[in-house]
Amino acid sequence: MGFRIIRITSRCKLETQLNYLVCRTDKETRVPLDEIDLLVIESQQAVITEALITALLDHKVKILLCDEKHHPQGEINAYSVCYDSPDKLKKQVEWTQEKKDRLWQQIVKQKIHNQAVVLQRHHEREAYQMLSKWEEEVLPGDPTNREGLSAKTYFPAVFGEGFVRQRHGGGYNDMLDYGYSVLLALVDRAIAIYGYNSSFGIHHRGKQNVYNLGSDLMEPMRPFVDDYILSNDLAPDDYKHDLLQAFGQNVDFNGRHEIFQNAIFDYVLSCLQALSPDDDLLSKPINFLAL
Hints:
By secondary structure, the chain is of the alpha/beta class. The chain folds into two domains: 4-76, CATH 3.100.10.20; 85-287, Up-down Bundle (Four Helix Bundle (Hemerythrin (Met), subunit A)). 43% of the residues lie in helices and 17% in strands. The protein contains ten helices and eleven strands. The protein is globular, with a radius of gyration of 19 Å. The protein starts with a strand and ends with a strand.
């Protein structure tokens, strides 16, 4: 599994040679394919060879493509990166509603918990107390929508009164869009590596969303992106490189320290195992390190 996120921001030619990604501009840069986790291509003037694309897919590297405004627009994935994917897909369509509801309860509780930690870190005590209370009220499937209630309190508290979370909303919203898109790409990569299909979620059911399961499983990890934005002085017009560093921070996964990027894979696996009809497991928590 790779550990580097490569970001392409200028005119260049991308090709492969001797198991390296080769980036040619006025100079040549080489990166071993085995070290790459995610390739983000932002420049509209970047040219990539078919040989490199297939080599990246062979190394289980996801390619994230951006539009002319540098917003993530789409992805290139391998059809299958797991030898027993057909068996996993059969299990996926047999997931019971009870299992899905229970996992969604765990996901929402963990998301609210991590949001509450962000509030506490940034001295929003009243909102922190409210979310801590709602965390304990989450039921299987979250029928009382404690997730939505928490979001309405959380975002204005941490990003400023009057802040509304919306795509392409400018300012903090653009930073969140970018960070969440990278997070979703890493979560979906893990889902594919473990042999499952991200189109079939446990809560998200968008007919035009091919990443429903990824959208489900990423929820508890969004606050890590939020906190990184709040804790660092990111330039409004040049934040992407710095924001990628969020995925190299240390987190607590199931009681042990891990790099966030690696913990994503372990967390996704624990969620998939919790859905197995053969076991009665809970997903393992991913938390902030104590200050």
